[in-house]
Amino acid sequence: SAVISQKPSRDICQRGTSLTIQCQVDSQVTMMFWYRQQPGQSLTLIATANQGSEATYESGFVIDKFPISRPNLTFSTLTVSNMSPEDSSIYLCSGHVGGQRGYTFGSGTRLTVV
Amino acid sequence: RKEVEQDPGPFNVPEGATVAFNCTYSNSASQSFFWYRQDCRKEPKLLMSVYSSGNEDGRFTAQLNRASQYISLLIRDSKLSDSATYLCVVNKGGTASKLTFGTGTRLQVTL
Hints:
The complex is a heterodimer of chains A (114) and B (111). Chain A is globular. Chain A has no helices and eleven strands. The termini of chain A are far apart. In chain A, the strands form two sheets. In chain A, strands 2, 4, 5, 6, 9, 10 and 11 form a seven-stranded mixed beta sheet that branches. Chain A has a four-stranded antiparallel beta sheet with strand order 1-3-8-7, with no helix packed on it. Chain A has strands spanning 4-7, 10-13, 19-25, 31-37, 43-50, 56-57, 68-72, 75-80, 89-95, 104-105, 109-113. Helices cover 0% and strands 50% of the residues of chain A. Chain A is mainly beta. Chain B is 0% helix and 53% strand. Chain B contains no helices and eleven strands. Chain B has strands at residues 4-6, 11-14, 19-25, 32-38, 45-50, 55-57, 60-65, 70-75, 84-91, 99-101, 105-110. In chain B, strands 2, 4, 5, 9, 10 and 11 form a six-stranded mixed beta sheet that branches. A five-stranded antiparallel beta sheet of chain B has the order 1-3-8-7-6, with no helix packed on it. In chain B, a hairpin with a 2-residue loop joins β6 (55-57) and β7 (60-65). Chain B starts with a strand and ends with a strand.
């Protein structure tokens, strides 16, 4: 099955700064998805990242706060901008590789904003 | 109403027990259904897809009832290593469309 390498695995950041999370897939993926998982809760979709077009954001998430890049079919980044303690969470990327069952996830980025 | 609803648990069962989890979904247009397993501080991993005819993978059996919009997962002969959170996941569209996750059901298997 596909492997998604996500980094950093964790970070502690000062409020007001930004962090960029990267995901690299070992196969071509049409759409990649970015999720947030807050402690004790399930995954909430932030946005869907397509290659060559702007990402599609879910209700409650905006491009200025969570800009996404998708320069090719194997790579995507999510930036958490102007961070506040409320942004402390686990961020996960995911993708579906054609011909495979289900979706594969990156190992997650555990973000703490202080 | 949440799109995908699960009993959060925790379900505490002894080793060797049989345990069943249920999940309901609200969108009748949903097309694909999955159970994912998430260990503490890890990413979700696909446990099994769920098909209308029901499907089995070793000790795990998944069922789908489209009329009732209900999905189940049965685990037989529970092992300590089955302790995890089990996420019910629904896909509304084609194979590359977005997933909707339930809140998960926590299982703790004890000696």
